[in-house]
Design goal:
Blueprint (H helix, E strand, L loop, with lengths): L8 E6 L6 H6 L4 E3 L6 H10 L5 E6 L6 E14 L13 H6 L5 E16 H5 L18 E3 L2 H11 L1 E3 L1
Parallel strand pairs: 1-3
Antiparallel strand pairs: 1-6, 2-5, 3-4, 4-5, 5-7
The protein binds a DNA duplex through loops.
Length: 164
DNA sequence: GCCAACGTTGGC
DNA sequence: GCCAACGTTGGC
């Protein structure tokens, strides 16, 4: 008898002007490395808790109507974000370069479902069952956040996911 | 474009 | 180790 693996659920924010869910869909095999996370708490989630098969809600922030647009799954667990060492990258980290080692972590994710009805922030705010979602809390800036299983499936229910 | 909330930096 | 100053995020 094998133990059922514990799957985690996450939400990752992205600014669609920089990288959108559709950009992820269009990437080779719909896979990309999620570079540029420069917050320790978010990094620690990716380093310590992201497991292959975990499911991720992809959320667009900093736009008129912030919303969850799709679902991705983790296909590679945490590894060093080498963009921190590349002076040409927007995510260059001078300190990391000096040390010759990147303290930052990235993961690879693959788009699996597009939400036919993107679930807007407004919609979630009007949904009592979503009230405690981290992304809705005042001042919640964390770009990588845990999501409960209940909230994950609630968003899917509201969004009419289509398999890619 | 504004600004509240938050994280980081650096002087002391 | 405190905390003011500063920079960034991101909703509105």
């Amino acid at each position: 008898m094998s133990k059922k693996p514990i799957k985690n659920f996450w939400l990752m924010k992205t600014e669609p002007d920089v990288f959108s869910f559709e950009d992820l869909v269009k990437a080779p095999n719909s896979i990309t490395h999620w570079e540029g996370v420069r917050n320790y708490q978010a990094r620690n989630f990716m380093r310590d808790l992201f497991k292959i098969g975990d499911q991720v809600l992809i959320y667009h922030s900093n736009i008129d109507e912030p919303a969850v647009f799709g679902v991705a799954s983790v296909v590679r667990e945490g590894y060093p974000d080498s963009f921190a060492l590349d002076p040409k990258s927007n995510y260059f980290d001078e300190q990391a370069k000096k040390k010759g080692q990147s303290p930052w972590i990235m993961v690879d994710v693959k788009a699996t479902h597009r939400l036919k009805n993107p679930v807007t922030r407004e919609r979630l705010k009007n949904e009592p069952r979503a009230k405690s979602m981290m992304v809705l809390q005042r001042g919640a800036r964390l770009s990588v956040q845990p999501v409960s299983e209940e909230h994950f499936y609630l968003v899917l229910d509201l969004g009419s996911p289509q398999k890619l």
